[in-house]
Known about the structure:
- The protein has 243 residues and is an alpha+beta fold.
- The chain has two domains: 3-190, BirA Bifunctional Protein, domain 2; 198-241, SH3 type barrels (Roll).
- The chain is 26% helix and 35% strand.
- The chain is globular, with a radius of gyration of 18 Å.
Amino acid sequence: MQIIKLNATDSTNRYLKSLMNEETLEDYTVVVAKNQQSGRGQLGTVWESDPGKNLTFSVLKKTHALNIPNLFMLNICVSLAVYRALMRFGVPDIMIKWPNDILSGSSKICGILIENILAGNRINSSIIGIGLNVNQMAFNNLPKVSSLKLLLGRNIDLDSMLGEILNELKEVFKQYEQEGINKLEQLYTQLLFRKDKPSTFKNKDGDMFMGFIRGVSKEGKLIVALEDDVLKEFNLKELNLLY
């Protein structure tokens, strides 16, 4: 496994994508930066991180021409790999906020951004970007954000945590290749934040409504039970979970 360490870059995803255009890279090539100056989250949100205190890295995963309808299995595998690594470090009450934010309790500690490289109607490879709050102590009054140090009361070695996540990524993808997605999908669903609890959502028009998260469809849409137990599926741009 090749690990490329940078002092600073605008985005590890962007750096890895550029590197792919210049040379042939092996599966699980990693780019990790002490300072990521333009990190991005879902829907173009900005990932803020103090230099040298957190993990900001990207991993190349060759997906062997994965069919686009099976795309969400990437989110499931990566989310569960991070979950398992955090469990090994004793992080409490880990949940997955759909589609792939990692929470401890109700506080976000990790964000995941997956960018796919297509070959026709298939996914040839994916760049998995992960931002994990590790030793940062303050977040400029951002609501519901925490770090491993705040949760555990100790410093975490960044290289040890990186190694644990990379090992779990390999193990989870191996499990997927050997057993399929069913068991992983069941665990992902069990870990969904606010599953089967009355929750407030806001739709794309700004209207708020109540519902119960029941699971996620094969295409990665959130399944919500509305009034009279009517089930409706939503994609990421269609609603926001307000808690």
